[in-house]
Write a structure and sequence with these properties.
About 35% of the residues lie in helices and about 15% in strands. It is of the alpha/beta class and about 250 residues long. The structure holds zinc ion.
């Protein structure tokens, strides 16, 4: 491969990465779309086609009708069992391994950054790795829940100790984001001299405020995402093509 096939913008981002010493990556649903996980904000896609996620994946539904909540969420759990990271996740992990990225803040709950080899992953919306009991704080691993769902469980899985319904360790609609994760995310953002936002429309707060934190502190912003974001005019560079192709060009140019 020659650098002739690298776009000017990809070369610009590669240059920004090389010249920065505290780069942080922020990712949203768009980085997992090539792994076959639909972005639920895109209408008419997959699991979210027939239900309103704002209504079903809500903490109030979980508390009032845990069986109904799990009737929906169980499918989501099973559908994420076999998904694999794609080359965009691997590119982010590669940059961290080479000392070019300090960590990744993600809105995704799919565990794919860790599966790709990223070490410092701040999951601000939690992850499906565990389910938790809200009464005793006991944890049950994802694989155990999937086993139960695949064995025919349609209602809520229960905590073995207190028989309370288990809740996925993800942030549901109506819930606050985990304080420790958000605090680490703010630290990374405020210390960053470059933030690369990948596959996020940067519209969901408080995560959408993180690029602002970096910019206010004097850092730069790069965007790798299709579609508009509120930060388009303030970014040093925007790569608006396919996320896998764009990041592979960036790696090639580094
Ligand atoms: Zn319990």
């Amino acid at each position: 491969m020659t650098t002739a096939s690298v776009s000017r913008d990809a070369a610009r981002l590669a240059e920004l990465i090389r010249s920065s010493s505290r780069t942080v990556v922020l990712t949203g649903a768009g980085i997992s779309v090539p792994s076959g996980i639909p972005d639920f904000r895109t209408p008419g896609k997959g699991l979210w086609e027939k239900v309103n996620p704002m209504e079903v994946a809500h903490i109030d539904v979980f508390r009032r009708e845990p069986d109904r909540f799990w009737h929906f969420y169980g499918q989501r759990f099973s559908s994420l069992k076999d998904v694999q990271p794609n080359d965009a996740h691997r590119a982010v992990a590669d940059l961290e391994r080479r000392g070019l990225v300090r960590g990744v803040i993600t809105q995704n709950i799919d565990r794919l950054h860790r599966a790709a080899g990223s070490q410092r992953v701040v999951e601000v919306h939690g992850s499906i790795e565990y389910c938790v009991c809200l009464d005793c704080r006991g944890r049950v691993h994802h694989d155990r829940i999937v086993e139960q769902v695949e064995a025919g469980l349609t209602g809520a899985p229960e905590c073995e100790a207190c028989i309370s319904p288990l809740k996925p360790n993800v942030v549901l609609f109506g819930e606050m984001l985990p304080e420790d994760a958000m605090s680490e995310a703010y630290d990374l953002a405020s210390e960053a001299d470059l933030m690369i936002a990948i596959g996020s429309s940067l519209e969901v707060y408080p995560v959408a405020s993180l690029p602002e934190v970096t910019l206010e502190a004097g850092g730069r912003l790069a965007l790798v995402t299709q579609g508009r974001t509120p930060y388009d005019r303030r970014a040093d560079v925007k790569l608006a093509g396919d996320v896998v192709q764009e990041l592979s060009q960036v790696l090639q140019a580094i």
